[in-house]
Amino acid sequence: MKAAGVAPDVVVFNTLLAGFVADGRFEDAFELTREMERRDCPPNAVSYTTLMQGLGSKGRVDEVMRVFVEMRRKGCTPDSVTYGALVSAFCKAGRLSQGYEFLDSMSRDGLRVDPGVYLGFFVAHEKKEQLEECLELMERMRECRCPPDLSIYNVVIRLSCKLGETKQAMALWNEMENSGLSPGVDTFAIMVNGLVGQGSLVDACNYFKDMVGRGLFVAPQYGVLKDLLNALVRDEKLELAKDVWGCIASRGCELNVSAWTIWIHALYAKKHVKEACSYCLDMLEAGLMPQPDTFAKLMKGLKKLYNRQIAAEITEKVRLMAEERHVSFKMYKRRGVKDLEEKPKSKRRKGQKRSRGRQTVQGQSREHADLSDSVDDEEFPS
């Protein structure tokens, strides 16, 4: 630009300034503002706001305040975005009283306050577990004709569940929907996880099924599914867990290997071995191959139940699927099939007692291999 005889304007300088701030080069950014003064192109509200946003993100609140004072001294009027940067910086630093002072200043100056400015207060109150303050602030927003948005409801619902106020969380949910807001995936995940954490499993199932019914259950929510199913099985609510799984399957949701593994492992962990095997067969019928550790768990559980028929059925299906897909079956065989092999019983003379200490070297090595291949040490009643 200089070679072409074109002088940079404030837009060009602000672009450079944003680059310095994004890169954390604040000394260069401050020097650039001085250069702008020397070139008779003084910083404007965008310039100062960019600096404040960058400093605030780094927790340098005192410097944010100095920039704001300098801005006012230079006769540059702050706008809503500037005040938003100030509020965000002070809320992030936990200095809420000063944040509220700037919020009041916005109201006095007749500036519009959007929900994004309020969000910083809610996040700060959540960290301090101040539910009452959150509810009061929501009421203040309504009085100012600035209704809470989905992000704010997410924060307050999460805090309500965390503090055990599940009825309050559900009341907020109803209020949110009545105001015309539609809960998204994040909102459902927050509610289900919160209810599971408080042991409200029936309510958690209802919200989860609602999420599935709205077509919002996709692969990233498998963590929610895992926590819910494990909690239900752990609490001996097996039929309710089956109902949740049936809801997913009947709605045509994508059930990949991870989803099936979560369900099968949840059943196995609480010793529902036959049910776990039944769903493993369903998984194979759906054209999905279980992971080697899942296979090994089921073989171990079936061995303890002396159920070789189901074990043989699962093994044969896995072997055929591995052959069709050109996948080595050695890993599966090493992890589980050896446990099912019939071992010849040694004949002993009449009256002769079995010696527990007498083992062949071959028997010792086989036992060592079985132990090293074991996935877990969970014991099942025979």
Automatic annotation (TrEMBL):
For this protein, the record's Pfam families field holds: PPR, PPR_1, PPR_2
Segments of skewed composition (Acidic residues): 373-382
Work out whether the entry's keyword set contains Transcription: no
Which keywords does the record carry? Repeat, Transit peptide
Q: Where is the composition biased (Basic residues)?
A: 345-357
Q: Where is this region: Disordered?
A: 338-382
Which family is annotated?
Belongs to the PPR family. P subfamily.
Give the protein name, as stated in the record.
Answer: Pentatricopeptide repeat-containing protein
Q: What species is given as this protein's source?
A: Triticum urartu (Red wild einkorn)
